[in-house]
Design brief:
This protein is mainly α. Helix 1 crosses helix 4, helix 4 runs antiparallel to helix 5 and helix 9 runs antiparallel to helix 10.
């Protein structure tokens, strides 16, 4: 008896997540209530409470589901040799994970103040710090470290900026990745050549 009901619960959970993300995007995280989410779903608040007690629980569940590939990527990169090839592959895989969680990423970008102190905000901050550590060498010259970190930031900024630029989504994604990989290659080259003196 329990087996047929499980898919229904999973489907309802996903529907709640999707509707909540839509409402958070439309009117902001803080201005969205559980009542509005329940109304959009055409269910009672009691039915919604069965799955989630707060809207933060909904957002956290979305971040956990969509963030799992990033956690797996960090775990993979931790086991690899610290080479340019590993860092390049890290960025390629991160590109896939980032675009897979595009809706959540945009929501966080547009609701930074509201999300910053929530569990999801802290989790994203920790993931980003772990990625930065994997992309840069701590003993590298400062310009090389900045370029390595900027490679990841360029992917975030590019994804946000590309919303207002016309074009094929895959072409935009490829362009963002190309810029990030170029910054990473420059970081690696400057580590080999040493610091460049100004003037």
């Amino acid at each position: 008896m329990a087996t047929p009901r499980q898919p229904r619960r999973t489907d309802t959970r996903r529907r709640i997540q999707d509707v909540a993300l839509d409402l958070f995007a439309e009117q902001g995280y803080e201005k969205t209530s559980l009542r509005e989410i329940a109304e959009r779903l055409d269910v009672t608040k009691a039915a919604l409470y069965y799955h989630f007690k707060t809207k933060e629980e909904i957002l956290t569940s979305v971040a956990e589901d969509l963030g799992r590939p990033i956690d797996e990527l960090i775990a993979w990169a931790d086991t690899q040799p610290r080479t340019l090839a590993t860092r390049q592959e890290l960025l390629r895989r991160y590109s896939d994970a980032l675009w897979g969680s595009a809706r959540l990423f945009r929501l966080v970008q547009e609701n930074q103040a509201a999300v910053r102190d929530l569990t999801v905000g802290r989790t994203i901050k920790l993931r980003t710090a772990a990625l930065f550590d994997l992309l840069k060498e701590p003993d590298a010259p400062m310009p090389a470290q900045v370029r390595a970190i900027t490679a990841l930031s360029a992917m975030h900024a590019g994804m946000f900026a590309m919303q207002s630029i016309e074009g094929d989504p895959e072409e935009k994604r490829a362009a963002i990745l190309e810029v990030a990989l170029d910054l990473l290659a420059q970081a690696d080259a400057s580590m080999l050549s040493g610091p460049v003196k100004a003037g």
